[in-house]
Write a structure and sequence with these properties.
Blueprint lengths: L2 H29 L40 E11 L2 E6 L4 E6 L2 E2 L11 H13 L3 E5 L14 E8 L7 E2 H7 L4 E2 L8 H13 L19 E2 L2 H6 L1 H4 L3 E12 L2 E8 L4 E8 L7 H5 L5 E11 L4 E5 L15 E4 L7 E2 L2 H4 L2 E4 L2 E4 H4 L4 E14 L3 E8 L2 E8 L11 E11 L2 E6 L5 E3 L2
Parallel strand pairs: 3-6, 9-10, 12-14, 16-19, 21-23
Antiparallel strand pairs: 1-2, 1-5, 2-3, 4-8, 5-6, 6-7, 10-11, 10-13, 11-12, 13-14, 13-15, 17-18, 19-20, 19-22, 20-21, 22-23, 22-24
Helix pairs in contact: 3-4
């Protein structure tokens, strides 16, 4: 009568042992996995690339049909802006600001994002080596984007006359340098979608789950404006922090300068705030404030100059070290007296030799006795060609009512030192900064 009871006990013991083994096994499996720490981001290590049935060059899978109903123009590059925006000069001498259809590359102008620089360089390299470039509309009209100033376009290029045209929009997508932007809803939608899927499967660039080696992920580097100006190439793409006086505001940018005791020179920088700031953030950048600037240095292709962008202000955390900050108010720009001869002199510093105009970029200067040779009109600006002591310079006047009757007069200007297209210029932002001396 006791045998069944013994068997029951043995069965129960066996089940308990089995259940314990299962628990130990599960615990061991869980311990082999990385457990996230609350509040700490865990970087995903990418697996091997997912298999692709057939890796394909989708940029050459579509064909430029010159006889189709779409509009087309042969163009040359005027200015590289970023990965998905280029300014072209058409064969009829008109300028076309192109926003590439079907793609959205990471930012590198207003703010700076991972893989933005790589996308920008990719576009520049492809078009710089092209023997021919064609822009194409998506239908029978030149369609404008939401800014009202850029055409939505397909960009085609070929290396030589014996090669077929390649679709650059799709080539950017298949290299993982852009995300979708209405990619399926256009003329070449199937190829766009396939190119994106392939880039994801191959884990290319923005789909790689890896950090962009050209993007600075660390905290801001604290430095002086002298260090930044004299070593701009070294800090390109780096988040920086510096102090200076805001001297002028124009074109969604302010100009900030600081005096260097050792050299007796002012060093300056263009700071682009774009549309990212409002309220107290904009007040910090008011002309006359001494402010701490925190942003990313970048070479701005369209302006042919270095600038700091990607500014931010968290109103609920005003002491956040990543914020721009007001230090004091009641200051004014130096507007240092210089001549055109001064601007062309060579200055030797311990950092190297520089043309004075290069060192003065972004600073306030005062220049007397400029003879006006010609006046022309651009997009919201007046272009004044001047000379003095055998040197020529362009004065760019903004928000001013100036006519051609200024030709032959001599002017004095309070200006910001700038450049465009490799040529130095003086930027004037108000009527009080330009006076007719005779």
């Amino acid at each position: 009568m006791r045998v069944p009871e013994l068997n029951m006990k043995r069965t129960f013991l066996f089940l308990m042992i089995l259940f314990s083994c299962m628990l130990i096994g599960c615990s061991h499996m869980a311990s082999d996995q990385v457990q996230p720490t609350p509040g700490v981001a865990v970087q995903t290590v990418p697996d091997k690339a997912s298999p692709v049935a057939e890796e394909k060059d989708w940029a050459s899978s579509v064909t430029l049909d010159m006889s189709s109903e779409t509009l087309k123009k042969f163009v040359t590059v005027k200015t590289f802006v970023d990965g998905d925006t280029t300014h072209f000069i058409a064969s009829d001498s008109s300028m076309v600001k192109a926003r590439y259809l079907g793609i959205n590359t990471p930012e590198v102008t207003g703010k700076v994002e991972p893989y933005g620089k790589k996308a920008s360089v990719f576009t520049k390299q492809r078009l710089s080596q092209a023997s021919s470039i064609v822009i194409e509309s998506d239908d029978s009209s030149w369609n404008i984007d939401s800014t009202g100033s850029r055409c939505l376009l397909w960009v085609w290029y070929r290396i030589d006359e014996d090669s077929p045209y390649r679709n650059l929009n799709i080539e950017i997508l298949q290299n993982g340098l852009a995300i979708a932007s209405s990619s399926a809803n256009n003329r070449y939608g199937s190829a766009c979608v396939a190119a994106i899927a392939q880039a994801k499967a191959l884990k290319l660039n923005i789909y790689s789950n890896q950090k962009d080696p050209d993007f600075y992920y660390g905290d801001a580097v604290e430095l002086s404006l002298r260090e930044l100006r004299c070593n701009a190439e070294k800090y390109n793409g780096v988040k920086v922090a510096f102090e200076g006086v805001v001297t002028r505001n124009g074109g969604n940018s302010v100009y900030v300068e600081d005096y260097d005791e050792e050299t007796g020179l002012y060093f300056g920088m263009t700071v682009y705030y774009g549309y990212n700031l409002s309220g107290e953030g904009l007040n910090i950048l008011a002309v006359g404030n001494s402010s701490r600037i925190v942003g990313t240095l970048q070479y701005y292709e369209a302006g042919d100059t270095y600038q700091v962008s990607g500014l931010g202000y968290r109103q609920m955390k005003p002491d956040d070290p990543g914020n721009i900050q007001k230090i004091s108010s009641g200051h004014s720009g130096a507007f240092k007296d210089v001549s055109l001869a001064d601007l062309n002199e060579t200055v030797t510093l311990e950092e190297g030799e520089f043309q004075y105009a290069e060192l003065a970029m972004g600073t306030s200067v005062h220049v007397d006795s400029l003879l006006v040779k010609d006046v022309s009109f651009g997009n919201g600006s007046v272009i004044i060609d001047c000379e003095s002591d055998g040197y020529d310079i362009v004065v760019m006047a903004y928000n001013m009512d100036i006519g051609r009757d200024l030709v032959g007069h001599t002017i004095d200007v309070d200006a910001i030192m700038g450049s465009f297209g490799g040529t130095y210029e003086l930027m004037v932002y108000g009527k009080d900064d330009l006076k007719i001396s005779e």
